[in-house]
Amino acid sequence: MLGLVLILTGLGFLGYVGWQYYGTNIVAERNQAEVKEQIVEDWGQQIDGAAIGLLRVPRFGDDFEVPINESFSDEALTSGVGSYEKGADAGQLGNFVIAGHRVTRGEPFRDFLELEPGDIVEVETRTHLYIYEMRTNGRDITVDFTTSWPLFPVPDPDQRGAEPTEHLLTMLTCSELFHTRDRQVAIGVLVEEREKPVPQAEAAAAPAS
């Protein structure tokens, strides 16, 4: 009887691990596809939703494109990457902070440790394309998950309360593939801002000057 219980317990554990490392990825990929489709549809209708834009990181692959969702909630992080609600908006003065999983739930930041200074990160919103250039790599800055300075307007442990003078991007993820308290931090700066063309439907609705 004890042997049967141990076998069933082992099978249950394996099933849980399999769900975490494979099942959640399948669900996340489906969620991301749905959110990306909704983003484009909302942009065309000028609708503001929970998803604020799309993230592209050429270092992560030519076809890498995931939604950027509002907040760091489980739902947001299962549908792409999340953004810090109290931080700066994309492209704005201050610190635009995003976070994503390295493993499970779609693994958007699986290749985070491959980031290098000079890498380009694109953030597209309904009206603009913001292009950031990374200042740091994805390996060298490791902090405990309770550390708050990466969320500061000036992401520097010695700059609490400092007024921002730059348009920065801070990216966060888990340090190891398995459960860990540590987080990796990578920081970039805005180098280009492009205003997107006005959608035809929106232009047609605008009053004549």
Automatic annotation (TrEMBL):
UniProt xrefs under Pfam families: Sortase
Single GO MF descriptor: hydrolase activity
Active site: 101 (proton donor/acceptor), 174 (acyl-thioester intermediate)
Keyword Hydrolase appears in the UniProt entry: yes
CDD domains: Sortase_E (cd05830)
InterPro entries cross-referenced by the UniProt entry: Sortase, Sortase_dom-sf, Sortase_E
Swiss-Prot/TrEMBL keywords: Hydrolase
Identification of the protein by name: Sortase family protein
